[in-house]
Amino acid sequence: MPLLEGALAHLVCRHVRQLEGGDHEIVIGEVVRHTEPDFDLLECLNPETDQCVITNVCRLKSVLTEARDTFLDELDRYTLADLTTRSAQSAAFKSIPILHG
Question: What pTM does this model have?
Answer without folding.
Answer: 0.59
